[in-house]
Amino acid sequence: MKPSLTFGVLVVLIALTLSACGGGATGGVEHQQAKGRPLPKFDQATLPAGRYHTTEFEPSFSFRIKGDDWRFEGPSGTLGDPEHPDYLFFEKVPEAEIAFFNLRRVKGVYEPRGPAGDIEPVSAPDEVVGWFQHHPYLKTSEPKPATVGGVKGVQFDVVLANLPKNHEGVCGNTTHCLDIFALSTGGSSEIYYLKKDHYIVLENAKGVPVVIYYTNLKDEFDEFVPVAEKVLQSVEWTGT
């Protein structure tokens, strides 16, 4: 009986090993499918419908888009850089945009200034919502609760107002745009006249303060809101 017992034990061990390996492989495939494909590494790449995950932005996350009219587009002045550890930009054609900012990684914010004023950024404030509310060139709506990927925060609308004539900034000597966040690559995020931006401030997304905004440059903001909200509802934070 001893040889038969040994053989039986060996068969059981092999079966258990194969089962474990098979389960691991299936689990890996399912995890990859849930995470989605990595975002491309170049500017103006089209993004077919599906789930994507970040490769540089911190904290990392995945999200889902529907339709084939999305593309990976960097901020103005930063061609070839749609994603960095401090920011991520992607847009829905034509001219609707969603962006994420890691406030610990951005170079700072641009303080209010007059014509030909100092355009060097300062450190990002601890109270981001208050900074927007007290900015003399911005008007904000009343903050309301918001949740993105299970992380709680607040949301509010922002419009540009009362910008001085010949105002000078990274986005140019103009009364039509205002620089907000200074990006690691030298560009800036901007708010423009004749459009509304929607901001969401998350104080603790995997230990990091994150700001999200979405907007539509063609004055069709209300139509874009449900589209942007569906994208943000699909966000799953994967960073630590």
Low-confidence stretches: 1-31
Helix and strand pattern = HEEEEEEEEEHEEEEEEEEEHE
The CATH topology of the largest domain, please? Protein Transport Mog1p, Chain A
CATH homologous group name of the largest domain: Mog1/PsbP, alpha/beta/alpha sandwich
Q: Kindly state the mean pLDDT as a whole number?
A: 81
Q: How many helix segments?
A: 3
What's the number of extended β-strand segments?
A: 19
The proportion of residues in beta strands is 35-45%
Number of domains: 2
Q: What's the Cα radius of gyration? A: 23 Å
Largest sheet properties = 10 strands, antiparallel
Look at the structure and give the CATH class of the largest domain: Alpha Beta
Note the gap between the termini.
54 Å
SSE-based structural type: alpha+beta
* The CATH architecture of the largest domain: 3-Layer(aba) Sandwich
Helix content: 10-25%
Overview of this protein structure:
The chain has 240 residues and is an alpha+beta fold. It has two domains: 1-35; 38-237, Protein Transport Mog1p, Chain A (3-Layer(aba) Sandwich). Helix content is 22%, strand content 36%. The chain is built from three helices and 19 strands. It has helices at 2-35, 128-133, 221-233; strands at residues 37-38, 45-47, 50-53, 61-65, 70-72, 83-84, 87-92, 96-102, 108-109, 138-140, 144-148, 151-160, 168-169, 172-173, 177-182, 188-192, 197-205, 208-216, 236-237. The strands form four sheets. Strands 2, 5, 6, 7, 8, 10, 11, 12, 17 and 18 form a ten-stranded antiparallel β-sheet that branches. Strands 1-3-4-19 form a four-stranded mixed β-sheet. It has a three-stranded antiparallel β-sheet with strand order 9-15-16, with no helix packed on it. β11 and β12 form a beta hairpin. It is globular, with a radius of gyration of 23 Å. The model is unreliable at 1-31 (pLDDT under 50).
